[in-house]
Each structure stands twice: as C-alpha cells, then as structure tokens.
Prior knowledge:
Blueprint: E1 7-11, H1 15-18, H2 22-30, E2 34-39, H3 48-52, E3 60-61, H4 64-69, E4 74-77, H5 91-99, E5 103-106, E6 119-122, E7 134-141, E8 162-168, H6 175-188, E9 193-196, H7 200-206, H8 217-229, E10 236-239, H9 253-260, E11 264-270, E12 275-276, E13 279-283, H10 287-299, E14 308-315, H11 322-336, E15 340-341, H12 343-346, H13 349-356
Parallel strand pairs: 1-2, 1-4, 2-3, 4-5, 5-7, 6-7, 8-10, 8-11, 9-10, 11-14, 14-15
Antiparallel strand pairs: 12-13
Amino acid sequence: MLTSAHRIAVYMEGAFAEKTGKMGLGVLRFSPHEIVCLVDSQNVGEDSVALTRVDRKVPIVGSVEDARALGADVLLLGIAPPGGLIPESWFPTLDRAVELGFNIVNGLHDRLAPRYPFLQSSVPPNQSEPTRTNPDQFIYDIRTEPPDIGVGYAEARHLTNTRVLFIGTDMAVGKMTAGLVMWKEALARGIKAEFVATGQIGITITGKGVPLDCIRLDFACGAIEREVMACKDADLVLIEGQGSLLHPGSTSTLPLIRGSQPTHLVLCHRAGMDTLPRLPWVHVPPLVEFIRLYQDLAEVCGTYVRPQAVGIALNCAHLSPDAEALAACEETERETNLPTTDPVRFGTARLLDSLLS
C-alpha cells in the first residue's frame, strides 16, 4: 500500500490525446501523496495546470528515467480507458520502470503481479496474497476481488445515518469527483462523514474501498453492503457511483443501490449532453424523469426506502470561462428545480445545504 513516504510519478503516455487520463487526473486533483511529475513524452515541459485544469503544478517529463531522477519511487498508471486494459505499447516502459526500482500502482483490469513474480504483490485492503521474493518493491493491482465477501441482504436499511449515492447519466461524468468534493466539504463543517470508494481511483486516493467492476456478480451487492456497514458510526456516508442506467454496457447500478440502501441521491451530468458521446443513438431523457427512474428502482414498489434527490452535480469541464459554467448550472436548476453546481469550480456547499435541510 502507498504510504506518506512514497513519491509518485503518474504515467500518462498518450492519455491526453486519447482522453483516457481519468485515473491520473483524479489522483493529481485529490491524492494526499506527493506527486513528483507526470510522464508523457508528447507534452514534455508543458504547463501541467493548463494541460490538466487541475490546480496542482507538477513538471511533465518524457521518461521513467527522468521521473526516477526527480526522486519518484512509485509509477502510477494514469489511464482509465473503456475496457480497462493496459496498452501493449506500455509494457516495455513498465519493464524498464521495474528495472529502475519503481513500485507500480495499477488500476487496470490486466494484473501485473504475474508479469513480475519476483516482486511483492500489494493487494487492496483486507486482501492477502503470498509475499514475493523482493520485499523492497511492490506491484499494487487495485482491481482484485477481496476475500470473504458474500451475497447482499440489504442490511444497510437498518442504519440510521444518511447515505448519499452519486448516480450519473453516463460513465466518467464526475460521480467520484462530486463525492470527494462533497466529502471534503462535510469534513470541513465538522460532520462525521465517510467516503465509500467503489473504483480504482477512489481506492487509490482514500486507501480503502472495493473495486466493484472486478467483483463477481453474485457478490457485488454484498461487497458494497460490507463497505457501507463498515461506516455505520458515521453520520453521513457518501457512496461513489459507477456507470449509468442509461449506458447499455453498465451493470453497476443495482449492486450500488441494493448494497448501500441510499437515503438520498445526487445526479451527475455533463452540461449540454443530449446524447452519450460514445453512443450518440442513446438520448439523455429529462433529468427529473431520470432521477425518478432511480428512485422507483431503489424503492421497488415500496419494499425499500425511497431515496430523495439532493441536487445535481454538473460537469462543466468543457465550458470556459466560469460564466458559461454558471449559466449552465442556472439553466439546469431552472429546468429541474433542484440545486445545481459544478463541484470543481463552485464546490458542493449548495448540495450539502440541500441535504442537511
């Protein structure tokens, strides 16, 4: 596992051109660890803030050798592409990084531990695996199913705390970001809050959670339930969403709803998105109707508690300047009559106020 002593280089080769750098950008924005540099030969010397729109300036270097020279000892793979596979072109660089003594943090579905059997395999929390022969280097394959999980029984319905599930109109639309920003806002207000990470980025940032998309289907609800029940002493539990009911390739909604038994929902949406970018034949329904669909599914004809809508987290990353983002938030709020904000630009205070009221 990562510790405060580790110094991270984020490997982003080709990520900006292909728009797959979600992992790296999330870590750059939220991780408490020291980020030494980004590694991307296509953008050497560029201003990282201008390139990433993350207000955390780090140098961009062209090789793992350069990153090592700057003192980095962890190479974190910074992409989260559809399908979650490591590009073949990356393996020579990874081999070289291991030769240089780097620890590797891998959030993709391809596991690296079998490729480097001589390194220690560091697996996510509550997991165990035989220690390899080299104790000084580790491979951290985040997307590994934890042991001792079972089926779900909706145990979270007995909890008396507030549980907010972040839902979305698409994948990669800002559910994790909105949840983390709201978590920080809640902690700043002195609220006893917990964030339940359900994907590789959130797990890397918080150091705990469950990688939902690598859990066998029979145990997915139970895995989420276990994480939420571990937060039973918190007053507010924020559950990172995954996927979308609207996306034909997404299967994560039901385990998240059943496992967390949410009391409230925050909808995450990309400003101006009428159809899914990768699937233009999929049209986005009216947002109020979409929220109602989630509420109906969660409630199941009165069997479970019906979650209430807190508001909308609007992803305005593609809009500039801030005035355009603000106008988009105001328009969405008029259409839905729900508090709307861009969490990155304007924070989540309005969403938290709505929840508390």
